[in-house]
Specification:
transmembrane helix; about 260 residues; ABC-type uncharacterized transport system, permease component; membrane; mainly alpha; about 75% helix; transmembrane; ABC-2_transporter-like
Length: about 260
């Protein structure tokens, strides 16, 4: 294992994001606008009836959802489709580092950039304006770990969906479908704890809940048991890694480089 190579790939991802830093400004602006819309929506709902945990809890959940989702956002589909379209995929496969690892560590650099320039400012907004409170050092450390596991889950899922590009040669539509489903079921748009019991159980059965709702629960619920939440994330990562490896074995047989 060449740690230096992995660090270089991570740094490359960070520098790439830095070169397009206006994207992070747009992302932060979008998150703030989304938060303002959610504030208006949930304030109206709270005014017309009762909310479990109250309005402040819902808003804290929403802002944490924005912190996490903006930080772990990734576009493996775009990166891979570009390599296929430009014909560089064959050269990538000749490197001593696997294609999966190359993409993973570049995405890790992008994630760190998004965390620093989008996620942390959104968390600051939560602390200053939305009654978000620090959960303590131990639970915050568990939150960071769970968020990192959530990143790995999103990567594993996006790696699986990106394998379809070897057949379609187009990545943007696949990415849009994945992110839409992912955000709907993970807790980005609304708190999952507000769902009816049966529907909440269904959402909890899927891997998406472990991407965003899991770290939020660790941060906000001081009574939540950590081991089951983190253990579930690890199990889903292992399952998705296996599915991703199977998908990659199938995709390698379809490798055709446009123009050569």
């Amino acid at each position: 294992m060449n740690i230096k190579k992995y660090i270089e790939l991570t740094a490359t991802g960070f520098r790439t994001s830095l070169a397009y830093r206006l994207n992070s400004v747009a992302s932060l602006a979008n998150s703030i606008i989304f938060l303002a819309l959610m504030y208006a929506l949930w304030s109206a709902i709270a005014a017309s009836g009762s909310l479990e945990g109250g309005l402040s809890r819902v808003l804290a959940y929403i802002v944490l959802g924005q912190v996490i989702s903006s930080s772990i956002f990734m576009n493996v589909e775009k990166m891979l489709s570009g390599k296929i379209r430009e014909g560089t995929i064959v050269n990538e496969l000749k490197r001593p580092i696997s294609l999966r690892s190359q993409i993973y560590f570049q995405m890790l650099g992008i994630m760190l950039f998004n965390l620093v320039f989008v996620g942390l400012p959104m968390m600051l907004v939560g602390f200053l304006f939305l009654d978000l409170s620090f959960p303590g050092v131990f639970r915050f450390s568990a939150f960071v770990l769970s968020m990192f596991l959530g990143y790995n889950l999103v990567y594993c899922l996006s790696y699986i969906t990106s394998m379809a590009i070897f057949w379609t040669k187009v990545g943007w539509s696949i990415r849009m479908m994945r992110t839409t489903v992912q955000r709907l079921f993970s807790g980005v748009y609304f708190p999952l704890y507000l769902l009816p019991a049966g529907l909440e159980s269904f959402f909890s059965f899927l891997p998406f809940q472990s991407m965003v709702d899991a770290p939020i629960t660790i941060f906000m619920d001081s009574g939540a048991a950590l081991a089951p939440i983190i253990g579930k994330q690890v199990i889903w990562i292992i399952l998705l890694l296996l599915i991703g490896e199977f998908a990659w074995l199938k995709a390698k047989k379809k490798i055709t480089v446009q123009g050569g």
